[in-house]
């Protein structure tokens, strides 16, 4: 008998034009799926980005992907700019002033609200005003380098301003308030909050109250936290601002006694929401401490700024002359550290 025939081995061939996509066979791993945030609708992405601080958008979010960078350029994202707690950490690519200017530029004239705290100059405020004629709400808090002249010059470019909130701005005078009232006839909400002092260590001052009563007749909401007005000043406000719906007089200690009588009753009868001189400050968003005199305020602020550990915490890592070359660097006049010029091709990429 003949030997048993061996079975032929089958040799399967891949069809021409097709490649083996088996990762195990090819020895390579498949590409990772795109991040889930890339596929989000633009309006959802914009809603997420609005929750970030402006400096975080400029320094971080814009570099996540091309989609986010595109959304970050949309003027609608910059209609509200909140810089009340702007970070001036020296490690930041942009300081508060540059962050503000870039954010205003990105708004392309659509800015309707801006809040600035603890920084700013007259020049910066003017920069904002000439590019934001549609502004409706402005808050300035502890902006020590913004003068009354700078503010009155800027508000002339805000014909549609409806809300102005000034907190701890001692450089603003009653005459400045008068000019603001004339320049902003549509003003409906005004805040002029100061530090409170223990009675009777400070003099009374009705100049602000009288000016408000005479020049802001359309006010609906008025906050005068820590003001030195007397009963006469409050009476003038009640007569000159008949449309008031809310009035905050907390820590206005000069009217404490009269407010407990007929004057307080008159306010409550005419105005829907009234906060009296002795009402709680638990929900007050700013510093509600009471000082003996103005020298105490200066000393306290000075200590907070220049003698806190936070003020010096970022300087231990640097030698005094370590960055001397920056002073001769041709890029030294740019609004970011000279050693970070590599970060972008040109400054226009940030706008």
TrEMBL record:
Residues 1-16 have a biased composition (Basic residues). Pfam families: F-box-like, LRR_6. Residues 34-81 form the F-box domain. InterPro entries: F-box_dom, Leu-rich_rpt, Leu-rich_rpt_Cys-con_subtyp, LRR_dom_sf. Residues 1-39 are annotated as: Disordered. Residues 29-38 have a biased composition (Pro residues). This is F-box protein SKIP19. It comes from Striga hermonthica (Purple witchweed).
């Amino acid at each position: 008998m003949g030997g048993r025939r061996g079975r032929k081995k089958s040799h399967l061939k891949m069809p021409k034009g097709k490649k083996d996509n088996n990762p195990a066979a090819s020895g390579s791993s498949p590409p990772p799926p795109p991040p889930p945030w890339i596929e989000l609708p633009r309006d959802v992405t914009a809603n997420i980005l609005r929750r970030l601080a402006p400096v975080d958008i400029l320094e971080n979010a814009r570099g996540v992907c091309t989609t986010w960078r595109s959304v970050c350029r949309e003027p609608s994202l910059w209609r509200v700019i909140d810089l009340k707690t702007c970070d001036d950490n020296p490690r930041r690519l942009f300081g508060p002033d540059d962050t503000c200017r870039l954010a205003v530029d990105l708004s392309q004239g659509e800015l309707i609200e801006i809040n600035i705290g603890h920084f700013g100059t007259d020049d910066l405020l003017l920069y904002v005003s000439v590019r934001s004629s549609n502004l409706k709400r402005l808050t300035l808090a502890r902006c020590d380098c913004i003068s009354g002249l700078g503010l009155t010059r800027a508000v002339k470019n805000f014909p549609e301003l409806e809300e102005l909130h000034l907190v701890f701005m001692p450089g603003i005078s009653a005459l400045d308030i008068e000019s603001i009232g004339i320049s902003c006839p549509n003003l409906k909400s005004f805040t002029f909050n100061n530090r409170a002092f223990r009675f009777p260590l400070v003099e009374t001052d009705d100049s602000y109250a009288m000016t408000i009563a005479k020049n802001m007749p359309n006010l609906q909401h008025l906050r005068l936290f820590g003001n030195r007005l007397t009963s006469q000043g409050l009476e003038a406000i009640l007569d000159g601002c008949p449309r008031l719906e809310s009035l905050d007089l907390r820590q206005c200690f000069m009217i404490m006694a009269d407010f407990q009588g007929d004057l307080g009753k008159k306010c409550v009868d005419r105005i829907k929401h009234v906060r009296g001189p002795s009402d709680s400050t638990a929900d007050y968003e700013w510093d509600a401490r009471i000082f003996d005199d103005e020298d105490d305020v200066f000393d306290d602020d000075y200590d907070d700024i220049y003698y806190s550990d936070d003020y010096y915490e970022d300087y231990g890592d640097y030698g005094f002359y370590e960055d001397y070359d920056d002073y001769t660097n041709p890029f030294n006049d740019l609004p970011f550290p000279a050693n970070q010029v590599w970060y972008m091709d040109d400054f226009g990429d940030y706008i």
